[in-house]
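Why should sequence recovery work at all? Because a backbone constrains its sequence more than one might expect. Tight turns favour small or flexible residues, buried strands favour hydrophobic ones, and helices have their own preferences. The token representation captures these environments compactly. In the example below, the structure is given first.
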């Protein structure tokens, strides 16, 4: 714990370890020999550099705006595929399935994910299927790995 007090001669604020209480020290500002006061509850502080910084001493007065009526919608939800199909003509979309994204805790579920997606969109909506090979850096091993993926272009 730190002990904070003022020099009786120059009023410089000083901070010393509480273990130095009662010892004579020299004031770094006026070079006068002073005795470190015995700690009491009012002058013992734990040292927190963030709390003691000049930025922490600045007072901030924040005002929260108050609005009358219903709240304004700030986040618009995206239109789902089902809503697009009902509202108008189907748009051309692209979906890429990377093999590494389909491996879960040692289980390779790549074919299961691709088959489920293709069955969901239907054969009549598939425009093109393209096999892809790519390389990427494995984060864990920092090695360059070669992997594969499939690109599906479809109406949805």
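From this structural description, the recovered sequence reads:
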């Amino acid at each position: 714990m730190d002990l904070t007090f003022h020099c009786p001669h120059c009023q410089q604020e000083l901070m010393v370890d509480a273990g130095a209480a009662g010892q004579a020290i020299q004031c770094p500002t006026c070079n006068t020999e002073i005795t470190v006061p015995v700690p009491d509850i009012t002058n013992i502080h734990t040292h927190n550099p963030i709390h003691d910084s000049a930025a922490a001493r600045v007072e901030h007065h924040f005002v929260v705006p108050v609005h009358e009526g219903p709240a304004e919608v700030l986040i618009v939800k995206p239109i789902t595929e089902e809503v697009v199909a009902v509202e108008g003509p189907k748009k051309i979309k692209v979906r890429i399935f990377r093999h590494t994204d389909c491996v879960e805790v040692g289980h390779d579920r790549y074919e299961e994910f691709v088959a489920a997606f293709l069955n969901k969109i239907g054969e009549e909506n598939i425009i093109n299927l393209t096999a892809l090979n790519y390389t990427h850096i494995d984060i864990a091993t920092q090695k360059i790995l070669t992997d594969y993926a499939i690109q599906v272009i479809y109406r949805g």
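A few observations help interpret the result. The chain has a mean pLDDT of 82.
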